[in-house]
Design goal:
heterodimer, A: mainly alpha, 2 domains, 3-stranded antiparallel beta sheet, 73% helix, B: alpha+beta, Penicillin-binding protein 2a (Domain 2), Ribosomal Protein L30, Chain: A, Beta-lactamase, 3 domains, 20 strands, 36% helix
């Protein structure tokens, strides 16, 4: 029996249909986003929808090749592919073409390639390859550190282009590490840090610290259920804080409220230590450490933010958080994007009827802001369906990942889920003003050959591995 | 190999589902709950371009155009579309300073970077032609056609009024007006603003992010066309008006000529005046400031707003009232011994009948007549007699607004009996106390328009139509009802005939007005020399002609000139001849009046 025929029968049909559905929807919306009456021919190659048609055709060819290739190829060549991708990322920084201040593109005779889109599946393969044998030891730093290095190396290279958006996406691979056994404390601390980062920029540090102390007090009560302990701890802290505050107010005059709270926290911690030691109260210790670390983190974010982030990233974050209002400057994108989506209403304005889309009020509407077209022309209904399809695909992929016999395939599957999820959440979140504007594409929908091929390869390697899930890789 | 972390897949699934829910909730809020984004999207894309209508044209009574429209161009700018350009060349082209360029750009940017705002108002046709050739060098600039007033002759400024841009006060008061609209500010332009302004139209365009017009909204179904203002025929005779202004050059004063049969104002001159073209377009505000500051007050419309003592021109009306009240008859004789009590009179034969008294303007005759009117035993008190007298004056339109189409019209002044009662005590005043009103002095004040109207009523032998400056409005030639309502005066027309005879005698039988006489036309007139506190006497003359079936009634005031016979009567007679014959035969008189310079 023909082997390749066999393979096609074993490819997950649901994922395949969802994939096809998404690229068709992407093409339709790109058509609407760049539509103009002089070039209304569906395959006009001077227009983006004409070009996207070629990218789609090419990605289908790539998908077929990936399925035809033996599944063991991806396992054995994972490191080689990773190495090649890293080489490309280094090369692009040296010889890449600078567009919008970032060296992210190779230009080869009118044809551009963005290596960071390709490096994602390379990294996923390498991570799967490394953890395939080590996954039981993910609790040990000797394993976590190399795994983190595999993830952070391309993130660092991408950040050097600089393309912070794509760089952030690599961090999502920590979801895979969490699934494979990394301590949930590390994982949730990371998640918490990300949330705290935005909250810090959004609100006053002092209030945030006080809120965190409140949460900690509640958590201590929740963990121990001892009113006396909670009351006593709070009184000790407040007592020290008041003394310090008065000292600062009348004697030192230079400490500052944030530092007063922090020092009080440390000083009162000495008293708590006695209780923790006596009762072996690990949970209280963890809560206390969480509070101290968060306070340090919050106060260092401002400094980092103001001193290390590039200006345009800073602007974007400031705009998003409403710290800087400039409707015709940096905030213009987000503003117009939200207007587009918001004006779509429940059922949208109809295909080619979106005025925001038709008259190009949103920059980059066919690529990073393609969700605006969906939101405006198809409304809440269409947006909901797109999110629904993505959600369905992600849950389906988790299901596929969990049915893998080999660790390699499962780890790779989770990598696919993590990368797709991050792209989807950040891209749509950015279009509706939930997260800062970071220029990353919406998988399978955004215009662009590199990103479409990158996601196609990412997905189909996994579908290929899944098709042979019953076979052992080694 | 047991997977001890398998349950963590649920944590990841929950994370993904939660994130999706966050997105969906946010989408629901902005797409379904909030409706403001729809409006924002419309504001982005719809551009309302006002289509300004041309104002209605104004022609004279013979169909000659007085006011028409010229094209002007508002130079507009969309700051976001401008690129770096050669500012020096740009300024030279438009004839503006670089300071103005910077100022206007700043104003435009402050208003909006993406919406158009007026950069330079009312650029002339010539400048526009030059600019148009180079416009491609200045993206972001475009022109919006407007119309400005243009005048066929530099005359009749007070009659026509002027047009200016609406200010905040007007836009707040009247919702019709939007910033940038024009509005008539005085004269016909103000009185007939509603007819002249026409109706604005609007074109709705779709614009893209660069404010480039991409087409019309809903194929222009929501667009409205601008409707041109209604054309108006003025009752002014343009030639007569021009001639009147020429004669009044270098004099202060006023002329009002009325067609008695209709009440149509043929000429309305207030001197000094100004060229109406000075108050058009960009030069308007500067010139307006100059004209306002001018000590000669060229903006002041004396014909409507100056109240003068009528002097002896008041005598015919006092004679009329005497006749109607029965205190005198046409044959009543009064002696004059160079005056009456403290009021002097010049030398003339004595005693005189009414006709002779009007002809020679005998002060004594009218003082005695007036005294008889006020001391009429028919009335119990002098107040009653006085009120009766004032009643007749009111019928002629004195001490009231006549109700012309001009908005700013003065009432003039005839005191009431209460006025004297208050001043002297109730009925503690006598005819002699107020005797100077017999000869049009004292408290009496009337505008040239009121005097012309009185003359028209005499010419009509007892009735008048409210004077008006408009002959017809629009193609259906409508005119306000109040202008075709006859005002009948309760004095017998036979009494008027006696007065007319007196006025005829004044001009044609060796009276005071002989200077106004013409060979083939019987002019009836009356001179006046009004004493006033501002210096030399005002020369006054009222007249109508021809005697039978009068075509023109006229009042001429020349301020601080001296005798009415010397200065006002010649001007009146020249205008009468000009109007009735089209040409002036007495070139010597014309020349002497033209050369007369009373403004030192």
């Amino acid at each position: 029996m023909d082997r390749s025929n066999n393979i096609w029968n074993r490819i997950d049909k649901i994922s395949l249909i969802l994939f096809l559905l998404l690229i068709v929807m992407g093409w339709v919306n790109i058509y609407a986003a760049v539509y103009n009456e002089e070039h209304s021919g569906l395959l006009d190659m001077s227009q983006r929808y004409g070009k996207q048609f070629i990218w789609i055709a090419a990605s289908l060819v790539i998908a077929i090749f990936i399925v035809i290739i033996d599944n063991r190829f991806y396992f054995f060549f994972s490191w080689f592919i990773y190495g090649a991708c890293m080489l490309l990322l280094i090369l692009v920084i040296i010889v890449g073409k600078e567009i919008n201040g970032a060296k992210s593109w190779f230009e080869l005779g009118g044809f551009s390639l963005q290596p960071s889109e390709m490096a994602k599946f390379g990294t996923a393969l390498a991570l799967a390859g490394y953890l395939n044998t080590k996954r039981q030891e993910l609790t040990q730093f000797s394993v976590i550190l190399p795994a983190s290095a595999i993830i952070l190396f391309p993130a660092l290279l991408t950040a050097l282009q600089p393309d912070m958006g794509s760089s952030i996406v690599y961090f999502s691979l920590f979801i895979v590490l969490f699934r494979e056994g990394m301590s949930p404390y590390i994982f949730f601390s990371g998640l918490l840090m990300a949330v705290l980062f935005f909250l810090t920029l959004l609100t006053n540090n002092l209030y945030l610290t006080i809120a965190l102390i409140g949460i900690s007090v509640f958590l201590v009560w929740f963990a121990t259920r001892k009113w006396k302990l909670v009351f006593l701890g709070t009184v000790i802290f407040v007592f020290i804080a008041v003394i310090l505050y008065l000292l600062d107010h009348y004697v030192f005059k230079s400490i500052g409220n944030e530092l007063v709270i922090f020092i009080s926290l440390i000083l009162s911690g000495i008293v708590y230590a006695i209780y923790i030691y006596n009762k072996r109260a690990v949970s209280v210790l963890i809560i206390y450490l969480f509070l101290v670390c968060s306070t340090i983190f919050i106060n260092s974010v401002d400094y980092t933010f103001n001193n290390f982030l590039p200006t345009h990233q800073k602007d974007r974050i400031n705009i998003l958080l409403g710290l800087k209002s400039d409707p015709h400057g940096t905030g213009y994108n987000v503003n117009q994007s939200i207007i587009s989506i918001g004006s779509g209403g429940f059922h949208g304005k109809g295909f080619l009827q979106g005025t925001q889309t038709k008259f190009k009020f949103v920059p980059k509407q066919s690529s990073d802001f393609i969700f605006c077209t969906i939101g405006e022309e198809w409304g809440f209904l269409g947006s909901g369906i797109v999110i629904g399809i993505y959600l369905f695909l992600l849950l389906r992929l988790i299901k596929l990942a969990e049915r893998q016999r080999s660790d390699f395939s499962r780890i790779y599957g989770y990598s696919v889920v993590s990368i797709l999820f991050t792209h989807i959440f950040l891209n749509i979140g950015m279009a509706i003003g939930l997260v800062p504007v970071i220029g990353i594409p919406l998988p399978f929908l955004s215009y662009g050959g590199s990103s479409l091929w990158g996601f196609t390869i990412l997905l189909f390697i996994f579908l290929r591995l899944d098709a042979s899930r019953t076979e052992y890789l080694i | 190999m047991k997977d001890s972390f398998i349950n963590r897949k649920y944590v990841i699934m929950v994370l993904i589902v939660l994130a999706s829910l966050v997105l969906l909730i946010r989408l629901f809020i902005i797409q379904v709950v909030k409706s403001s984004y729809r409006l924002s999207a419309d504001n982005n894309v719809l551009r309302y371009v006002t289509q300004y209508p041309a104002r209605g044209l104004i022609s004279d009574r013979n169909g000659k155009l007085i006011v028409y429209n010229q094209a002007a161009y508002d130079l507009m700018v969309v700051p976001a579309q401008t690129t770096k350009f050669d500012t020096t060349g740009f300024c030279d082209l438009l004839g503006i300073s670089s300071d103005l360029l910077r100022k206007q750009m700043r104003i435009a940017i402050n208003y909006s970077r993406r919406a158009p705002s007026v950069f330079l108002k009312q650029v002339s046709n010539e400048t526009y032609a030059k600019f148009q050739e180079k416009m491609f060098m200045y993206p972001g600039f475009y022109v919006q056609p407007r119309t400005l007033r243009k005048y066929s002759k530099p005359v009749a400024a007070h009659v026509l009024g002027y047009v200016s841009e609406v200010d905040d006060g007007i836009t707040r008061k009247d919702p019709y007006y939007k910033s940038g609209d024009y509005i008539g500010k005085s004269g016909i332009e103000e009185a007939y603003e509603k007819e002249l302004r026409g109706r604005r139209g609007v074109k709705i365009f779709l614009v893209d992010v660069y404010s480039r017009i991409k087409g019309s909204y809903e194929d222009g179904k929501k667009d409205t066309l601008a409707i041109q203002g209604t054309n108006i025929s003025s009752s002014i005779d343009l030639d007569l008006q021009e001639y009147g202004e020429l004669l009044m050059k270098n004099k202060r004063g006023s002329i009002v000529a009325i067609e008695p049969k209709t009440g149509e104002v043929l000429t309305l001159v207030s001197s000094p005046n100004y060229d109406p073209a000075l108050l058009v377009g960009r030069i308007r505000s500067d010139n307006y400031a100059l004209l306002s500051a001018d000590t000669l007050k060229p903006l002041f419309n004396r014909a409507l707003m100056a109240s003068y003592p009528p002097g002896s021109t008041f005598k015919p009306i006092n004679g009329l009232i005497g006749l109607q009240e029965g205190v005198i008859t046409p044959s009543t004789l009064f002696a004059c011994h160079n005056g009456y009590l403290f009021i002097a009179c010049h030398s003339h034969s004595s005693p005189l009948s009414l006709v002779g008294a009007i002809g020679t303007s005998c002060n004594a005759y009218f003082c005695q007549t007036y005294r008889k009117v006020l001391e009429n035993p028919y009335y119990n008190t002098i107040s009653d007699a006085y009120d009766k007298w004032k009643g007749y004056l009111n019928e002629f339109g004195f001490s009231n607004k006549l109700g012309t189409d001009f908005v700013n019209e003065l009432t003039g002044f005839i005191p009431t009996s209460e006025y004297f009662n208050k001043y002297y005590g109730k009925n503690r005043w006598k005819a002699l106390t107020v005797i100077s009103m017999a000869i049009g002095q004292g408290e009496v004040g009337a505008t040239p328009l009121q005097m012309a109207n009185m003359t028209a009523a005499i010419a009509n032998r007892g009735y008048y139509f409210t004077p008006h400056i408009i002959k017809s409005v629009g193609s259906d030639h409508t005119i306000d009802k109040r202008f075709i309502t006859k005002h009948q005066i309760s004095i017998d027309s036979a009494n008027f005939e006696s007065i007319v005879l007196g006025m005829e005698a004044s001009v044609n039988s060796g009276g005071t007005s002989t200077v106004a006489a013409m060979k083939d036309i019987i002019v009836c007139g009356k001179t006046g020399t009004a004493q006033n506190p501002h210096g030399k006497n005002h020369a006054v003359f009222i007249a109508f002609a021809p005697k039978e079936n009068p075509k023109i009634a006229i009042a001429v005031y020349v301020e601080n000139a001296g005798f009415g016979a010397t200065y006002a009567a010649p001007i009146a007679s020249l205008l009468i001849e000009k109007y009735l014959k089209g040409v002036v035969s007495n070139k010597v008189r014309e020349q002497s009046m033209l050369n007369l310079n009373l403004m030192h």
